[in-house]
Each structure stands twice: as C-alpha cells, then as structure tokens.
Amino acid sequence: MSSGPGENRLPEATVDAFHRGRFFLAQPRGKGHRAGIDAMLLASLVPPEAKGRLADFGAGCGAAGIAVASRTPDLEVILVERSREMAQFARQSAQLPQNAEFAKKISIVEADVTLSGRERIAAGLADAGFDHIIMNPPFNDAADRVTPDRLKAEAHAMPKDMWAQWIRTAGAVCKPGGQLSLIARPQSLEQILAACTGRFGGLHIVPVHPRPGEEAIRILASAIAGSRARLSIRPPLFVHDDKAGGYSPFVDDLINGRAFLARR
Q: What residue numbers bound the domain in which 149 lies?
C-alpha cells in the first residue's frame, strides 16, 4: 500500500477471508484491531431478510457491517468510523474485487458517533435515518489493555460514559421500530440497560460462555426503538462444547454466516 506526497503512510494491509470466503477484509498487518469472532457474532444478530439502512457504529475495517451486507440482499450498509486510518481500510475492504457482488450497498462515513445535534446530522447521521444499528465498541477499561499501538488502543479502550453516548446517538438515528444490536462485556450490562431506558425496549440478552460451566465473557443484546416490551434473557451460547478447542456447531454456523440469532 502506498501514500501520495504529504500523506500519512498507512500500515501495510493483509486481505483476509471470512464466512468461508463469502467476503474479504483489508486489515492492518501487525497493528490496530483485527476482526474476529466478536464482529461475526454481532453480525449474526441481523436477520437475512432485513431491509432498509443499517449503520455500523465504530466499524473499524468494516467486519461486522460487511458480514451483514454479504447475506442481506435488501439492506444498505453504512460503516461509521472516526479513525481516518481505519476508515481507509474500510474503503479498501468495500472495494476489494472479492466483495464486488454487494459492494454497491456499502458506504463509509468518517464520523465520531458521540457527536450530537447539528454536528451529528452534518456528519451524515440524520435523525431517524436507519432501520438497524449495530455496534461493537471499545469496551475494555483503558487500564486493562495498555499498548503503544495507537490504532489498537483506540479500538479497545473505553472512554468515560461510552455506552450512554453511543446508545444516545443510536436512539436519535434509529427509526421507530428499528433494531439496535450490540456485543459487550457482561460487566457493561447495567450501563447498557440504563442507556436504553426511554429509547429502546424489548431487550433480548444472550450470554456467551467459552464452555459449559464457565462464566460468560460476552453478552449479545438486541432491542427495538420505542418498544415497551420486557427484558428477556435468552438461552446461552457456548463458543466451545468440549476441551478440544473447536467451535460448537451452532457458533460455527453463526460466525460463518450460515445461521443468525432470531429475536423470536
């Protein structure tokens, strides 16, 4: 990868296959956050029959949003990323020839999702402009992951009041009846519930455990804008069903785009 005169040189990229070759991503080699199971589980919360427009908040190189675009023929996907470098990787991902079948449905918006009011609208995040919002934010405590890699630090470290800010924006840009989907640490559940109050209801929480008998390490959550339905704790997901290290069959289907987590 090369840069023109006066431009900051981006890290070298790798091109990696996901969903068993259904789509590909351009990702920074040896720097920044590289997509994995979290992004693919997040994408599995969006049903394949989804229609309208989807915003992927904090999209990075586009992993979750492009995963959704690859299997939802009637959904336009907007990748929202504040980092100029990662937004450029998202553009490269969308323009890869391997993704040509659905690339026209994908666009990139360089914006901080914590913007509000006119600044947010001017950045391309209009009020009630989206039918689906997905988010895989930097949910680690800043002290948990100390790293000299700036791209990785931005992707992993949690700013103060992050959940309140991101879900506030989701509530503003999501249409009534639209769906919010996210992945988080279990420790963030209280903040997520508080931020959803008055904005999103009918929360469905799916705990994600490494194996049976082990504590949950993630939660998957979905909710509906304006809903008054009650909170529902769904059956757990087990990433591995034995000690051999392979994915459990259902999780393998989810992270490879062969299944999705239905709300009903």
A: 13-255
Q: Per residue in 47-79, is it b (16+ CB within 10 Å) or e — as a string?
A: beebeebbbbbbbbbbbbbbbbbbbbeebbbbb
Helix, strand, coil in percent for the chain, rounding step 5: 30, 25, 45
Quote the radius of gyration of the chain (alpha carbons, Å). Answer: 18
pTM for this predicted structure: 0.89
Residue 49 domain flag: yes
| Inside any domain, residue 141 | yes
CA 133 to chain centre: 9
**Closest C-alpha to 86, from 52, 48, 39:** 39
Buried b (16+ CB within 10 A) or exposed e, 149-178: bebbbbbbbbeeebbebbbebbbbbbbeeb
pLDDT, tens only, 15-28 = 999 999 999 999 99
CATH number at residue 70: 3.40.50.150
Compute how many other C-beta atoms are within 10 angstroms of the C-beta atom of residue 231: 13
Q: Which tens digit of pLDDT belongs to each residue from 170-188?
A: 999 999 999 999 999 999 9
Q: Is residue 6 part of a domain?
A: no
Q: How far is Cα 119 from Cα 124, in angstroms, rounded to an integer?
A: 9
Q: How far apart are CA 73 and CA 54, in angstroms?
A: 12
Q: Is residue 5 part of a domain?
A: no
Number of domains composing the chain = 1
- What are the helix (H) ranges across 54-161? 63-69, 84-95, 117-122, 150-156
Report the C-alpha gap between 171 and 173 in whole angstroms.
6
Count of Cβ atoms closer than 10 Å to residue 195 Cβ: 21
How many residues in total does the chain contain? 264
